[in-house]
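Handout, page 2. Input:
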Amino acid sequence: MSDNDAYRFPVSVKGIVVRDGAVILVKNRRQEWELPGGKLEPDESPERCVAREIEEELGLAARAEAMIDAWVYTITPGTLVLVLTYGCVETAARSVVLSDEHTEAGWFTPAEVDALRMPDGYKTSIARWRSSRAGGDAPA
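Output:
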């Protein structure tokens, strides 16, 4: 089988933004909480994609600092997506302005994240970013 015959996944790039010990999450139309982010465009890097998506979805200014994880998520049977998660830092202090892509946004502590209805892959990525930052959220 050639590479062109291989199964292809859409790529979704998600960002982990922590402020004052809490991570920003958005609720999708499936009533699941998730990290902000979206589909990688053909002409952009994953780092640029996540910064653009965070700006579009939440009005926040952030930059990708480190790739945290990559995993395949089954949205519905037969609908798979490759998720790349990036630890991000805010580059300016802004208030959240929710786009119409999601129904809610909120800042959640680690204990609150554990109890939310969201894919385990996101929870794992959030915990890995927090661990790598030793609980901090200030830019390095």
